[in-house]
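Thread: Modeling a multi-component assembly for a lab meeting

Hi all, long-time lurker, first post. My supervisor asked me to bring a structural picture of a complex we are working on to next week's group meeting, and I have zero experience with this. I have the sequence lines for every component (760 residues in total). Could someone generate the structure of the whole assembly? Inputs are pasted exactly as I received them:
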Amino acid sequence: MHAHVTGPRVLLRSLREAMAGPLEPQERLNRIVQQVAAAMKAQVCSVYVLRADNVLELFATQGLKAEAVHTSQLRVGEGLVGSIAASGRPISAADAANHPAFAYLPETGEERFKSFLGVPMKRGGQPLGVLTVQTTHSVQFDEEDVEAVETAAMVLSDLVASGELTGLARKGKELDLSAPLTLRGDRLASGIGMGHALLHEPRVVVERLFATDEAAELDRLRTAMEALRHSVDVMIKSNFEGVQDAGESEHLDVLESYRMFAHDRGWLRRLEEAVSDGLSAEGAVERIRQENRTALNRSSDPYLRERMHDFDDLARRLMKELTGSSPLGDGLTRDFIVVADTMGAAELLDYNGPHLKGLAISEATATSHVVIVARALGIAVVGRAQEVVARAETGDFLIVDGETGDLHLRPAEDVRLSYAERLEFRARRAAHYDAIRETPAVSQDGTHINLYLNAGLSVDLPQLETSGASGVGLFRTELQFMIASSLPRLGEQERFYRSVLDAAGDKPVTFRTLDIGGDKILPYFRADKEDNPALGLRAIRLSIDRPGLLRMQLRAMLRAAEGRDLKIKLPMITMVGEVDQVRVLLDREIAMQEQFGNTLPNSIQLGAMIEVPSLLWQLDELMGKVDFVSVGSNDLFQFVAASDRTNAHLANRFNPLSRPFLRALRDIARVAGRTGTPFQLCGELAGDPLSALALLGLGYRTISMPAASIGPVKDMVLSIDLPSVTQMVNAMVDDRVGSQTVTEVLTDYADHHGIPLFAV
Ligand code: PEP
Ligand code: MG
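Re: Modeling a multi-component assembly
Sure thing. I ran the full set together rather than chain by chain. Output:
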């Protein structure tokens, strides 16, 4: 015998009424369980809601003893109800008492009931509770029964998620939903972000689950479906264009199945039916998606499961079309943190605006494109944030601490206040840096210091103006390549470099040729797998092996800089002969421009990055061959200390602020000074005021750093007497006993001389 008589559609209509009425939360719940029980011809319907202490509390029941409500409880994993919450899957049992997971709760009086069907209430991946029905007679629940109860569970999930039930839990207990949650993730971009969570993949909220104007909803649904079909067609077209061999066509099969689903009449029909049952367009998409998920969980056929995943993804895209989650940045009026499983760099840029404060993301690493862009935007990023993605709801308060890697979801008042204080302190500092933006970076004794910017993307360019930097000391050209989906062509490169020079105006710009390989990977660039990519075929080595790529880049730079000054530097030079090889290519490109009658740059300078220790013993030869040198302290230190710069376990083990490393930096400065070769340093070291103090003492007068560091470093420069700093730093570096660490010596000196050292 089957349980249902009315089916999911009729049930949905009556639930809609229960949700719309002006009822107290407990009343609403009571009404819902009554309606589900009636629709299912069941004697019992109960709702268990998950609390923060991982206990499921009976919140409402039709059929069990009334006194059990808010008394009866089960741990997650305990009994049938606890098992459903733990597994996230429905359980149906014709003879519940004989089910292996059964646990008897005497206070409920459920011994009278025979058959059981329970389904999880969820939001995203997060369990919120369990909805059950029970009958006195033996019943074999079928798929339609499960679907009907799942529909009701979906409505209830939204009710729980809306926060309306928060006050109902047993005294002193909180729902999981509203409890503060602190998690430690990966620090991917520094800074502190505070604001309201914004889910990149939006979920349906309760107001939108039902709708009154059926015709309007059908209209919205059809428009969104049209847009979805169009976007899938465009996606397929652009993917087919680049395909040359059959090996690349595998992902096209996936796209073809997208097209099949997107044009599937059955899907649209089911969605339309759901709308005529009273659901909003979003509610309909969610319901059909859930039905498919249930089918997916039941199927063991791998092919079918894959297709179901495709379908799930497509449903998500349709939802996005409906909720219009595209360019939001300027439209959002309060500070927000984007919360995402994964996202592309371009998608993050869609959110860019004054209120974007941070990103909590599950699947990303320090070199993911989205993280590179986030850093350029100056927002805090914490990775490995799966749990926050599952538990956050749009609107929840969230703090992203890029310094510690902590994520605070719905933080308690004291946590929030202490972060607010830190932000306020930072804001005061920022106002101060803003006030000295136009002040030249001149030390007390009158020495001018060049504070330059490290950049690489269009979003960095406004920072030339806002930071007060006096030039771009390092333009990382590979970033344009890294965030592109295919190799940027000559014209694109030229346009981009021209826009950089335009933005810089009179300020100098130093472009670095492609520095790929190691941790900088181009998805469309096929390279052999290397055991030690950091020591492998990377940067200038790759450029020399693939001169076509380098020549194209040099050509783009020459054209972009017509009539202006062009400075180019080469990454990862190991032997001075490599500079000669590049110079031959550059000369050939210059000759070609002349041949075509193109205007050349006013001046062309070629420099080398000092990043590989072997150069330390070829300094004199090197200076004779280049127009300038630039120390890449990140890589130089990584190779001097044999310590992978991307390895978190080594992050605090060795410090570049150490005598041996500073001695190496001093050697470079001395040889450059002696030979009259302009020299600079661009690496994270330049951006830390304490380290920058040491660099100035070693003789560096041009240092290039991230935008956020310009203010704090300038603040330091303005207060120092350089001859005194020079003496102190040299004595410290020459000190063979070293009873104090470099950091201690520098900090003491700064304290004694009132030098401000606010790290970024
Ligand atoms: C460096 O190595 O210090 C440097 C500036 O280059 P990148 O960080 O891009 O490797
Ligand atoms: Mg480097």
